[in-house]
Specification:
2 copies of one chain form a homodimer. By secondary structure, the first copy, chain A, is of the alpha/beta class. Chain A has 2 domains: about 30-245, TIM Barrel (Alpha-Beta Barrel); about 280-375, no CATH class. Chain A contains 15 helices and 17 strands. The first copy, chain A, has helices at about 45-55, 60-65, 70-75, 80-85, 95-100, 130-140, 155-180, 200-215, 230-245, 260-265, 275-280, 315-320, 320-330, 335-360, 365-375, and strands spanning about 5-10, 15-20, 25-30, 30-35, 60, 90-95, 110, 115, 125, 145, 190, 195, 220, 250, 270-275, 285-290, 290-295. In chain A, helix 6 packs across helix 7, helix 7 packs parallel to helix 8 and helix 14 (about 335-360) packs antiparallel against helix 15. The longest helix of chain A has 28 residues, at about 335-360. The model of chain A has no long low-confidence stretch (mean pLDDT about 95). The interface of A and B includes residues 41, 42 and 326 of A.
């Protein structure tokens, strides 16, 4: 089993630092994982991820990689680490979320799995718990996720309960398949169960207890940040983290804003991924140590100051706000690149700082001082 | 006047090496200038231009920069070098070519200048030789180009002659305005006349003689590679270069393929720019030391070899052909970035090699051996 060592515990909260040892290197938690949907973090070179942003682990999507380039190419390449040139740790989402969010026509859920149409060419496919484990063996991610049903955030209790029960049965099939197969490339992979249950406390507890009993190397919390108030999300995290084992990493899927991340760290979460830094960046929205910026606004037209005075990445030194505004207004690809590199550097800076303040025992005070600054709109 | 020193002359041809000293650094010729239309070389960071591609000078477009961000922003920034973070030498095209190629409705040419509609918002503008000099003072390029009429490549003699005569009158007005104004940012700029005359030998001679008499720091050859056979282009270059002074740099505008560039170098041309490496790159067409590649082709699907075995840039080491094909097929921005960096690295490698072989005196033999290799389709 993948080794996870807790290095420090914050004095005033449940926040903790740790190190996760994977076959492709160490991951220091709390960590943010840039999203590389089809294998590539959009508009960002692997050299930038490694040397400039300080990324330690990236995320790939099973759904996208299965459709394109397909498992044949990935196996011929020797797995995703070798295919995309990243080489460091990778986690793959199981495709559950994509099947439910990207394919809207002709999707059918049965006990066996989900049939869906490709968003690329409309072709029909079946994802089963077993099949998704096999695809993730082909991708070769260090951490693979269980295949789950992702019910809408607005699901009523009845639907949420039935959905969770299906997800739990699928989880057992995932575990059976995963444990019954060998990795393809000679290094260890780890399967994380996903805790579901919408915003229903008893369902979340039941799901977390079921997952914990399976004694895996780490656990994910899914189905949050899908429209519910942030306070409900935080409450669910508290419910789940009281049950999940202390000595294993906890991954909050698809979350979120810098504030969401700090609040979740305070409640004992260790790993995060979100498209927000890259997707919002491509729309000209920047996270900075002074506050958030919509770079399209007229007010930046003649502001020749650095994108971030803290110079979190080389792009903050090489380019000014005014130039970046010009690039985004002129639809230049370079503008998307700069925003993506900067925002990811910000997210990685945020979790590095969080680790430092947890180790120093003043996480809560630091968070209280930082949040008003970084969340204001400039 | 900008200092140009000839360093070597090829033994078997008119090819020569030199160094041009600008206020922002030296340019070693023959040189290829990446095109940064609106100030940015599309999909390429300035750090990559400087450190990875070996670019020494880039090109900006007066037409585009005048429309966006506009001279007010450029002047507030202290010129384009400071605005775009590049800092090294810049040449600006005068906008003549763009006015005639990008604005098709409502364009009107008079003795005074050209009225045209912006391709961005349809607003009306007037470019005169004097106005274009002023805009290039605001941009602050090291080398600025005269404002010329760019007649269609298919122009008959009568049109070409009238057009050239207008261009010559405009050139004199450009010189008068340029010499009658001061640079805005405290460093010297240099105005290059543009030789026109379509494919008519006597017009080219007349234009070159007129330009040469103006005794400027360098000269450009425009209006070629606009549809005429390559042999006619090479013949026109020979005609013009017999007249232009030996001791000044000669810039062949908007050219071209690697073959075009080597043939023009052999005929005494020193400077080149072209969108081909970046534009074709964004379409998945790669120039390599082994031949040209359409990366979209099925044959590269499982080819995990480097993009170029010569490893001309870090992207050739970090990524494989198969991965690049996947990125381009999946419309990933990173694919455009990789192709752009690679192709520009190839063009800069080509002119560096040309310089080396001119210095060694075996340019023609090297060219004859290289061309069949790099022009074949893989």
């Amino acid at each position: 089993m993948m080794k996870f060592t807790l290095l420090a515990q914050d004095k005033g909260s449940k926040a903790r630092c740790g190190v996760l040892e994977t076959a492709h290197g160490e991951v220091h938690t709390p960590i943010f994982m840039p999203v590389g949907t089809v294998g590539s973090v959009k508009a960002v070179h692997v050299r930038e991820l490694r040397e400039d942003i300080g990324a330690e682990i990236i995320l790939g999507n099973t759904y996208h990689l299965y459709l394109r380039p397909g498992t044949g190419v990935l196996e011929a390449a020797g797995g995703l680490h070798r295919f995309n040139g990243w080489g460091k740790p990778i986690l793959t989402d199981s495709g559950g979320f994509q099947v439910f969010s990207l394919t809207d026509t002709g999707r059918k859920i049965t006990e066996e799995g989900v049939t869906f149409r490709s968003h690329i060419d409309g072709s029909r496919h079946l994802f089963t718990p077993e099949g998704v484990m096999d695809v993730q063996r082909s991708i070769g991610a260090d951490i693979v996720m269980a295949f789950d049903e992702c019910p809408p955030g607005t699901s009523d209790y009845r639907y949420a309960k039935a959905s969770l029960e299906l997800t739990m049965r699928w989880l057992e099939r995932c575990v059976a398949r995963f444990d019954g197969t060998e990795p393809l490339y000679g290094y260890e992979q780890e399967l994380f169960p996903i805790v579901q249950g919408c915003v229903y406390r008893d369902l979340r507890e039941r799901s977390a207890e079921h997952a914990a009993k399976l004694e895996r190397g780490g656990y994910a919390i899914g189905g949050l940040a899908v429209g519910e108030p942030a306070e409900e999300m935080y409450a669910m995290i508290e419910v789940v983290n009281r049950i999940l084992p202390e000595d294993k990493p906890r991954y909050l899927m698809g979350v979120g804003t810098p504030e969401n991340i700090l609040e979740a760290i305070e409640r004992g979460v260790d790993m995060f991924d979100c498209v927000m830094p890259t997707r919002n960046g491509r729309n000209g929205m920047l996270f900075t140590t002074e506050g958030t910026i919509n770079i399209k606004n007229q007010k930046w037209e003649r502001d020749f100051s650095p994108i971030d005075p803290m110079a979190l990445a080389y792009v903050d030194v090489d380019y000014s706000k005014a130039y970046l505004r010009h690039l985004i207004k002129a639809d230049e690809i370079l503008g998307l690149q700069i925003c993506s590199v900067h925002n990811l550097a910000f997210y990685l800076w945020l979790v590095r700082e969080a680790r430092r303040h947890i180790a120093e025992g003043d996480f809560v005070g630091w968070k209280a001082k930082l949040l008003p600054r970084i969340t204001r709109r400039l």
